[in-house]
């Protein structure tokens, strides 16, 4: 793809998007969803990932599969409900109705068929403490009246995990309600948007209110450099963040101006890079006993980290009806009551590549390939940049984040030295990641802005993507291992 | 050598035999032991996890035993270590070398077959390392440029060569002396390759992958050729050639399939032998140098020695005859025929020796294919199709559906089936519900004083009377009901079907029935004489109707008593005394009109459905069952297996008639999980773009890669076809269905002018 001119005709909204591949993907997303939702727009920073994401989401909701379409969207609502994500709930409610779903189901969980209700246990466990899932849960679903077939169970599991982990992206990125949703639209005194009358077509293209009009405020990553998914320039970026972010963030500020938190001086990128360098030069290996200890350290330390923000005050009534047992939330794996009976999950004993992939593909068409591509893309995504620096090998940093997320859910990689996590991820970042993964509903745009201050937005979004994918993979591993056990015995 | 096994405390990941196959080492996350293999048991020699300082280096992904020195073992640890163990030492000293060089989990270790001290490892970090046990560090490192290396193995033919297979589906051949670049690389599979194995004699390399295939590559030339492909049912985790059998290879799956299969690579779809002892997936296979015995480990925590004589032989159980019947009634039958060797006739002795010793040599075989053409025109076929298409199976009220289906059946001349529908309607319609309700109200005081055949009689009474409430003519109903009751009795009368056939219908008025009566009795008397002739006409009709109608008629117009007298001699002739006995009591009780009893018609209905199914008419049985809906739960004695068979039978027949919509509907309405799950399987097939061959996933008419719709234009109107696209398989031109139909009604050649004589039917 070539250089995209800066000043293009405003009559064609799509040409404003600078990056060819992102643009194509946005067209695709619009065609799929009849809107270009904010999630896709934020993901537009990483077109290669967005491609996989859209394909997967489209497939599990609208592609071939054992579950009826209305069920799929309702399951998505149930999943998003676990994190009180009204944004996703609203979107899925609309989709549910478009698919001809029974309107009365939207009155709440008490109005849905018993078969769907039976799924709620798994939904709850997978969302917060996936390690508690066992064979009897699957057995309960597949036996007796209103029973599920295994293919249906696996389809439901994929939808559940997809939407649980999507919550871990929506909140930490500070994605706002769609403009047509309640609370989604504010008259933008601060956004200085109403001055360009020519941009109506833009609003039409995104399927939203015609009043959000200035094309330069289109919330699309705006890349002036030739390569895809590189970094935004400052001014545009702020507009972008303004648009989708929380309203109290005024447009004049740039990220660098945000005052550093007085209590915790953040480790700069240079320090981080220095540490990565030291780690890679370090040849001396420590004893395996030490390694095991380090894993436990990371586990227990993370247990001491609280959520970033206060818990949201109460649950709004309109989403409360899709939630049962709100008291059931994440509990630190290190503090689990069942310390004896539930050992650490060793990824070497049940891995995505070897086992989970084959199983999911067997029971639910070709979803394994889509998920496989999505995980791989998310795990290997890199532009060799960090902050403003280029040609950086970010693999250690990324691996630390990925493994830290899975460690929070009790998954251990035998071949990883968990000491690296403590060196590469400072406390504030760990707190952010933990909150994003385990209590996404507590994370707001403010928290997003507070962490990783020297990083570009695209990189921060990248971190959130990793939270999404690592969490989804962890949940799927637990769920599919359980299904596997159910099948073999 | 017999099958023996021993249980471990945890799942086992791998096993290795020593060079004379007398000992076996097994390794897993919590297991690391050496056993000696005795005649009928395993004897533990050494537990390497007995040490106090347990750590992750003891958790093995793979174990290898030096092929030259019996005292050395090597393990691949999950934490990235490669350890060398010296069995002559004890305690901590046993761990002679620990190579901490791999960054990620080590997947495989392999000893060189002839050079002592040399071993190679492949790891998740995408590198292979070559070790000399006497050195503290790796002698050489090979970068595969892939995400991870899943298996490595030294070639038994070329001492410096080893093969490595990796995550991205590629196979690499390396020379240990050249670390910078592999000698050869090719893509073998579309998914990760989990295992490879060199053939002990031929220059074949077998690779096994997640894409559910095992492939055999011939590496004699510089360009590898794919010689054989085996299709398995699950991802394959391990493969091992069977010694002394050139074409045999053992495989075990990574998920789902717990058995160990031995394949003859020339027969790629069905295993030559299978071992089903394991309860969880098998994790490793090792042959004991002999083609008859091998050992395997499994995630079910066991180590088993299998003896070939205990194998199950799926291939030999495979049916060697095939039969298919077309919808037109034509039959194809293929079978194997004994071959007479075209050489001079061998003596018995020679023959015997040749078959027993070299069993896996080619042998001659021949088969024949017979085609039988159906001569007599059978109207069943068209009516089957008609009924399948026109039955209403859901969406209306129960009586409505029954009425409709009865009418449909009648329309195509199946009045007996039509009758069944009406009977079902009567028995399970509103009336039945009403009766049940009455029964529940306790409005019953019935019949202690009925004689021997009382149950049946009661039944008759109820419906008889119940029907009176609903229909103007009570007798019609009695007829219908009775028909079912006597199914069993009347089985001997198949040949009389013809008589019952046109008459068993409710809607006849009195006069008509009287006419029929005359016809009937005449027919009946002639029946015995015409038996042979009639047999040819036998088809779908219920056998018992001949009698039912007589009952009905008796009941109705003339004084009933006369009728049995007229006919009973005939009955006795046919030795159906039971029928005769029943009739008087039945008649008597009707005349009394006792209070309405509760009666459950299920038994009779089941009887009738079974009868139809036995006669090959599962259509009726299945349709009735579907329409019955909730009432099915009353049919308690009808077991699910039978019904599943019927459903499968019906679905298959529908398939043969290409009645896909009806088939999908039946599956959808089926209440048995195993059937309804058939609709959850995806049947989607993507067409490929004609320009870039990319599957058209989003829509059938736009290629995402080349953004072209050229492939999907109609050859006649040149517009993009967005609905049904029909094309010729000969010249691959096509277009709108209607346009093509129109074109080929007048022309024979392809509309594009390519000159192809397309065949449009």
From TrEMBL, chain A:
UniProt KW keywords: Cytoplasm
Chief localization: cytoplasm
Localization of this protein: Cytoplasm
Stated name of the protein: Sestrin homolog isoform X1
Positions of region (Disordered): 202-229
Similarity section: Belongs to the sestrin family.
Organism: Nicrophorus vespilloides (Boreal carrion beetle)
UniProt cross-references to Pfam families, sorted A to Z: PA26 (PF04636)
Automatic annotation (TrEMBL), chain B:
Assigned keywords, A-Z: Metal-binding, Repeat, WD repeat, Zinc, Zinc-finger
UniProt xrefs under PANTHER family: GATOR COMPLEX PROTEIN WDR24 (PTHR46200)
Natural source organism: Nicrophorus vespilloides
WD repeat placement: 99-141, 142-184, 186-227
CDD domains xrefs: mRING-H2-C3H3C2_WDR24, WD40
Segments of this protein annotated with the region Disordered: 554-582
Domain of life, source organism: Eukaryota
Pfam families documented for this protein: WD40 (PF00400), zf-RING_16 (PF17120)
Protein name listed in UniProt: GATOR2 complex protein WDR24
Gene: LOC108556936
Residue intervals of the WDR59/RTC1-like RING zinc finger domain: 711-759
Family the entry assigns: Belongs to the WD repeat WDR24 family.
């Amino acid at each position: 793809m070539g250089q995209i001119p800066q000043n293009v005709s405003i009559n064609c909204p799509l040409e404003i998007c600078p990056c060819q591949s992102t643009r194509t993907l946005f067209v695709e997303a619009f065609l799929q969803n009849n809107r270009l939702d904010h999630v896709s727009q934020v993901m537009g920073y990483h077109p290669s990932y967005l491609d996989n994401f859209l394909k997967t989401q489209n497939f599990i909701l609208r592609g071939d599969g054992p579950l009826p379409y209305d069920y799929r969207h309702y399951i998505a609502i149930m999943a998003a409900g676990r994190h009180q994500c009204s944004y996703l709930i609203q979107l899925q409610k609309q989709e549910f109705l478009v698919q001809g779903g029974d309107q009365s189901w939207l009155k709440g969980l008490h109005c849905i068929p018993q078969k769907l209700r039976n799924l709620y246990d798994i939904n709850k466990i997978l969302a917060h403490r996936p390690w508690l899932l066992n064979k009897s849960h699957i057995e309960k679903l597949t036996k007796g009246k209103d029973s599920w077939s295994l293919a249906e169970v696996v389809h439901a599991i994929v939808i559940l995990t997809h939407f649980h982990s999507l919550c871990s992206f929506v909140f930490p990125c500070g994605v706002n309600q769609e403009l047509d949703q309640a609370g989604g639209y504010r008259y933008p005194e601060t956004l200085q948007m109403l001055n360009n009358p020519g941009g109506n077509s833009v609003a039409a293209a995104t399927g939203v209110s015609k009043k959000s009009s200035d094309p330069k405020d289109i919330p699309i990553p705006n890349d002036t450099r030739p390569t895809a998914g590189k970094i935004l320039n400052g001014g545009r970026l702020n507009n972008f963040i303004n648009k989708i972010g929380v309203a109290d963030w005024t447009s004049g500020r740039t990220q660098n101006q945000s005052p550093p938190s007085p209590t915790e001086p953040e480790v700069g990128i240079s320090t981080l890079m220095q540490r990565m360098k030291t780690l890679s030069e370090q040849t001396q290996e420590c004893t395996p006993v030490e390694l095991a200890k380090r894993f436990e350290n990371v586990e227990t330390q993370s247990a001491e980290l609280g959520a970033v923000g206060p818990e949201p005050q109460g649950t709004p009534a309109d989403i409360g009806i899709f939630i049962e047992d709100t008291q059931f939330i994440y509990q630190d794996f290190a503090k689990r009551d069942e310390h004896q009976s539930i050992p650490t999950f060793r990824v070497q004993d049940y891995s995505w590549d070897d086992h989970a992939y084959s199983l999911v593909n067997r029971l639910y068409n070709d979803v394994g390939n889509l998920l496989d591509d999505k995980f791989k893309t998310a795990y290997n995504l890199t532009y060799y940049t960090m902050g403003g620096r280029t040609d950086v090998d970010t693999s250690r940093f990324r691996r630390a984040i990925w493994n830290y997320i899975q460690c929070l859910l009790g998954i251990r990689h035998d071949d990883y030295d968990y000491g690296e996590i403590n060196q590469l991820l400072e406390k504030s970042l760990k707190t952010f990641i933990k909150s994003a993964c385990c209590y996404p509903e507590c994370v707001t745009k403010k928290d997003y802005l507070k962490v990783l201050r020297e990083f570009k937005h695209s990189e921060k979004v990248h971190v959130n993507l990793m939270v999404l994918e690592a969490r989804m993979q962890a949940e799927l591993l637990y769920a599919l291992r359980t299904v596997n056990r159910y099948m073999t015995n | 050598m017999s099958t023996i096994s021993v249980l471990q405390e945890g799942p086992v990941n791998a096993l290795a035999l020593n060079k004379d196959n007398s000992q076996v080492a097994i390794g897993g996350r919590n297991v690391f032991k050496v056993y000696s293999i005795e005649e009928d048991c395993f004897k533990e020699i050494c537990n390497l996890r007995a040490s106090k300082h347990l750590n992750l280096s003891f958790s093995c992904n793979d174990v290898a035993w030096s092929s030259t020195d019996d005292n050395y073992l090597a393990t691949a640890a999950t934490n990235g270590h490669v350890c060398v163990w010296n069995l002559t030492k004890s305690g901590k000293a046993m761990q002679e070398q620990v190579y901490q060089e791999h960054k990620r989990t080590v997947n495989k270790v392999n000893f060189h077959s002839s050079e002592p001290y040399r071993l190679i490892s492949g790891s998740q970090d995408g590198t292979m390392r070559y070790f000399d046990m006497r050195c503290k560090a790796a002698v050489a490192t090979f970068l595969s440029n892939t995400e991870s290396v899943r298996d490595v193995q030294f070639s038994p033919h070329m001492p410096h060569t080893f093969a490595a297979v990796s995550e991205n589906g590629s196979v690499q051949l390396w020379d240990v002396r050249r670390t910078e670049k592999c000698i050869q690389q090719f893509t073998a599979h579309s998914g990760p390759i989990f295992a490879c194995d060199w053939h002990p004699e031929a220059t074949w390399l077998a690779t096994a992958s997640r894409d559910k295939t095992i492939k055999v590559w011939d590496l004699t030339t510089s360009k590898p050729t794919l010689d054989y492909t085996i299709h398995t049912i699950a991802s394959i985790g391990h493969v091992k050639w069977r010694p002394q059998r050139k074409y045999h290879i053992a495989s075990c799956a990574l998920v789902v399939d717990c058995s160990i299969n031995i394949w003859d690579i020339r027969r790629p779809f069905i295993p030559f032998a299978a071992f089903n002892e394991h309860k969880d997936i098998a994790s490793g296979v090792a042959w004991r140098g002999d083609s008859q015995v091998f050992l395997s480990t499994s995630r079910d925590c066991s180590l088993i020695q299998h003896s070939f004589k205990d194998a199950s032989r799926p291939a030999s159980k495979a049916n060697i005859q095939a039969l298919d019947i077309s919808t037109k009634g034509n039959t194809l039958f293929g079978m194997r025929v004994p071959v007479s060797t075209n050489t001079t006739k061998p003596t018995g002795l020679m023959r015997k020796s040749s078959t027993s010793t070299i069993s896996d040599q080619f042998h001659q075989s021949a088969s024949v294919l017979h085609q039988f053409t159906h001569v007599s025109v059978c109207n069943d076929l068209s009516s089957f199709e008609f009924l399948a298409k026109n039955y209403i199976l859901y969406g209306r009220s129960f009586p409505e559906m029954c009425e409709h289906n009865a009418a449909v059946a009648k329309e195509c001349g199946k009045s007996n089936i039509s009758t069944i529908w009406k009977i079902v309607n009567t028995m399970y319609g509103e009336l039945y519900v009403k009766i049940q309700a009455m029964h529940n109200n306790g409005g019953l005081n019935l019949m202690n004083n009925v004689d021997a055949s009382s149950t049946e009689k009661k039944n008759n009474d109820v419906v008889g009377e119940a029907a009176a409430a609903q229909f103007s003519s009570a007798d019609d109903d009695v007829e219908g009901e009775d028909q079912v009751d006597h199914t069993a009795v009347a089985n001997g009368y198949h040949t009389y079907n013809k008589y019952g056939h046109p008459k068993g219908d409710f809607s006849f008025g009195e006069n008509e029935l009287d006419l029929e009566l005359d016809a009937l009795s005449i027919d009946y008397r002639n029946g015995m004489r015409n038996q042979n002739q009639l047999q040819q006409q036998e088809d779908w009709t219920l056998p018992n109707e001949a009698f039912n109608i007589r009952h009905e008629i008796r009941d109705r117009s003339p004084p009933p008593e006369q009728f049995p007298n007229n006919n009973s001699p005939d009955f006795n002739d046919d030795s159906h005394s039971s029928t005769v006995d029943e009739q008087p009591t039945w008649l008597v009780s009707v005349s009394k009109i006792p209070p309405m009893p509760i009666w459950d018609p299920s038994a009779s209905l089941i009887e009738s459905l079974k009868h139809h199914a036995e006669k090959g008419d599962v259509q009726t049985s299945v349709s009735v069952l579907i329409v019955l809906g909730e009432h099915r739960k009353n049919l308690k004695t009808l077991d699910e297996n039978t019904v599943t068979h019927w459903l499968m039978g019906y679905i298959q027949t529908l398939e043969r008639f290409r009645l896909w919509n009806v088939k999908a509907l039946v599956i959808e309405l089926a209440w048995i999980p195993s059937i309804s799950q058939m609709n959850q399987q995806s049947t989607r097939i993507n067409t490929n773009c004609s320009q870039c061959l990319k599957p058209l996933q989003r829509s059938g008419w736009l290629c995402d890669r080349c953004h072209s719709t050229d492939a999907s234009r109609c050859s006649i109107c040149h517009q993009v076809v967005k609905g049904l696209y029909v094309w010729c398989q000969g010249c691959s031109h096509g277009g709108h269905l209607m346009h093509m139909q129109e074109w080929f009604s007048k022309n024979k050649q392809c509309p594009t002018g390519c000159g192809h004589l397309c065949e449009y039917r």
